[in-house]
Prior knowledge:
binds guanosine-5'-diphosphate, protein biosynthesis, six-stranded mixed β-sheet, alpha+beta, about 600 residues
Amino acid sequence: MAxxxxxxxxxxxxxxxxxxxxxxxxxxxxxxxxxxxxxxMATINQRLDFDTASLIIDELKLENVRLERKNTATKTxxxxxxxxxxxxxxxxVVAVMGHVDHGKTTLLDxxxxxxxxxxxxGGITQHISAYQLKHDERLITFLDTPGxxxxxxxxxHGAMLTDIVVIVVAADDGVKPQTIEAIKFxxxxxxxxxxxxxxxxxxxxxxxxxxxxxxxHGLQPEEWGGDVTMVPISAKRGDNLDKLLDMILxxxxxxxxxxxxxxxxxxxxxxxxxxIGKGSVVNLLVTGGELKTGEFVVAGxxxxxxxxxxxxRGKPKGKAAPSTPVTVTGFxxxxxxxxRFIEVKDxxxxxKQALLNAQAEASETASANVTSSDLLRMMNTADNxxxxxxxxxxxxxxxxxxxVDSLKMIDTKGEISLNIVSSGVGxxxxxDVYMAEGDNTVIYGFNVNIPTNIVKLAARDxxxxxxxxxxxxxxxxxxxxxxxxxxxxxxxxxxxxxxxKGVFRTERTAIIAGGEVLTGRVNAGMFGRVYxxxxxxxxxxxxxxxxxxxxxxxxxxxxxxxIAFKLEKRLVIEIGDRVKFFTRELRKKKL
Length: 591
Ligand code: GDP
């Protein structure tokens, strides 16, 4: 029955089981059976992505079949990336990152107050995701982000928007895990790094030690001949903030950051939420062109006409140049955090482009139905059905996306799967509680309210609601909760080795022998592996230890003594054999 001609199957994003079976000339049941063998419970309409389909074809050993990717319209097809000759200088976009409590918020607040609030809009109370300030008559754009994971999410969405990362390190605490994460992020995003060594007003502040610490992590201070600018500051007292801003501008000058303005406006969605009376309120960062009110824009599958536009202080703005953060209304629905937006010429084009993007997204989501990594995971953990279910509620779409994306990035090492039952913007509702009934399900709130009646309902139904304001804490909680669900693992640790010098008594389930401890130690309760020459001949357990005919706790290297071994199986130990001792315990698995 071997076909000689190569068969080519084109896949645009994903293919249904039904379509694949037909293309392969197999019956649907045969294909579903094959998928089942691979640990995938598939239905006839289930979509498989390209890699999964390839794996299945490999498994079926169909050598004369070849899969080809068929290109579909991509979301980014319209975006300008290359700069023209006419590109002009633009303000740098700066993100402030660092370990928790090292002073990011204080720094952002101090800069904001120093440069804007004092002079102008007295009280910015609302959380703002981006702002601009003027230093030496030049603008600098600062991004405030809910956490590093938010950046990871933006990066996942395929955008690089930070030119400079200011890494805040407390001079009395040094480099910490999130400092390292920030360094890695900045390097991964190809951003320039400036270090702000903070809290220099504190008694325990040690600038040279902090620099040495940073140097150990690959950031060589300029003072020491390296290429990383480090500015000692006190975010709280305001010391050296001007110097920090000088350094940011200097770095921007060296980088010659530019953008085209004579192109349709484009940029990124950095936050979005609904407001009563206004509809969608969306924060955008313009990265190219000039955005004006009245223009039509598309962001992913959502489009709109810019109805109102404001700067970060809430002042109306008619036009926004590159690197400017603005708040706009007019999108018909909420665009996603991290999505690119682009200006188009009219409503018809906007609608059409949004629809095309929606279709591309749908085939992406559909293909995400069963991906090859799911498949690999299922193959590896066929007998492991542990699942941790979560429901996510967040204050704004940006935080929900960050939480969801970050949760998905937790490496569960195939030990457990994390299932996001649902996610959305808003307070925790009755419906969320009903959905959470069942094993291993937790509702996570991020910056939301949990009304008292919901707290009561959840308590009655035994549903866990956990509310967080800091993303790392939420992620830590999820990780720990998953660890709790894992089985214990057996951990063995070698403790020492003995050479047998005499065998006193051999019974069916016990042997009493004497010998010299060569390395380490041995005591009752330990296990041992017995080697004759180099061959492993059996396993024993240490029942008791004797030294000079007295029972003792342990024998250590260099000592000679007697041991009563317990046997599981009959075993003959001879003079000259060696016993390698080890402890064996059950430990909670870690992720
Ligand atoms: P974040 O978690 O990095 O945003 O840190 P915060 O900005 O919330 O700061 C954590 C704590 O350190 C707060 O109590 C701040 O008041 C304090 N702090 C921040 N910067 C300084 C500083 O320059 N000097 C001193 N003494 N305390 C600071």
